[in-house]
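Inputs:
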Amino acid sequence: MDNINKSDELINVNKELAVQKEDKKKRAAELLIANKELVFQNEEKEKRAEELVIANKELVYQNEEKEKRAAELDIANKELVFHYEEKEKRAAELVIANKELVFQNEEKEKRAAELAIANKELLFQNEEKEKRAAELAIANKELVFQNEEKEKRAAELVIANKELLFQNEEKEKRAAELVIANKELVFQNKQKEKMTADLIQRNKDLEQFTYIISHNLRAPVANIIGLSSRLQQINLAEEIKKQIAEGLFVSVKKLDEVIRDLNDILKVRQKVDESKQVINLTQFASDIHLSIEKMIENENAVIVWDFSEAEELITIKSYLHSIFYNLISNSLKYRQPGIPPTIKIKSQKLNNKIILIFKDNGLGIDLNNLSDQVFGLYKRFHTDRAEGKGIGLYMVKTQVESMGGKISITSKVNEGTEFKIEF
Amino acid sequence: MPIHFIIIDNDPVNNLLCSLTITDVQDAAEIQTFNFPVKGFEYLAEEYINTTNPTVLLLDINMPTWSGWDFLDNFEKLDDKIKKQIKIYILSSSIDVNDKHRASENTNVVAYIEKPLSEKTVLSMLDQKWM
């Protein structure tokens, strides 16, 4: 078998090799053509190489350029990297900032909401204000008007003020004049008060005189009228004629007495002409004692004095004489029977006042609410004792008072009487 | 007709004159004079208590110790029996209207007579009605 297979195979391979020789001939034709093609291509390629050299050179240049460029780019790249990093940092920062902004945004939204409310409120207020402004505008106009009025008024007041200033000055002048006039009036008033007091006293005196005239002066006159008319009767008995004549004589004498009394009283009441003088009381008392020595002897009286506390008195001498005389003779007149009359006179100083005290051991008077009447004119208290006229103490009081003094009495029946005179 | 007269006055001349005038009008008149009002008052209080003795009393005003007014004040306090017997006339020299007014206000005073006492006045006193 194998050899049949091998001859088939060699026929096959020879065939194949015949095909392959044919193919190689085709192939050589093709290769020739291809060769030619390759020569052409070669030439083309040489041309192309030359072109490539040029192009290469161009490329080298370009490469160098590109390297330069690359270097530049590298730098630029680094720059970009840096920028990038910067941008990333920035981005991180921006993220934070963004968050912050978000927060702020929220805040702003809240705020905006609030502001919206506030805005509404403001809007309302604004409207109110506008209303108010409108009102104020009216009020303003009113004020402007009033202001103008006030300015007019102010101008008027300036004029009025000047007028008042002038009047004020006039009034001050007037006030100064009034002050002077007032002082004058005060002085005159004091004068008038003195005069009034004087007049009141004089009025009392006049009342007293009226009384004296109606009683004491008219009493003897009435008697004289009655007696003289009786005298005209016919057939009067001698005895009665004699009684009438006696009565007439007594009445006329009485009339004369009253007139003399009135004269004495009026003398004291007349303006005090005699000036006051310093009187040494001890000397004064001695003088009086001497002048009534006989009377004192007759009454067996003792008069003692002590003026050591106040030795001197500034007064009207004749008045003081009358006072001493009347009080001493009063004490002697109303002495107690059987006891030698003793009169003690002394002076005292009390609160700038000088006091004279006359004290006796006489009958005394039951004053019993009558102390005012003791000094009354024609008042008598011891009618059964001695024939007093009721004028002595009245004169004393009148004289003391006309010198601005005061007199008072204290008395006890059967023990004595004390007169106190304050100057 | 009363024939009793009491004169209270410290002026003896007046008392004489009154006595003369009264006796001229009524010769039989009994006249009592007192120079001191107290004495006159005491006399009334003692003597008139058991009597019926219509009496005219002439009273002066201005007298020492008791005045006529003092006398009247005391008289007022006397028993009515006594007072009934007495008709008081103020007999004063005073021509003072105040005295006259005061006298007119006193119920015990019949009238105010200015001195001197006249016969006509005495006659009018005697004409007074007595209880």
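Residues 104 and 111 of chain B are 7 Å apart (CA to CA). Flag for discussion at group meeting.
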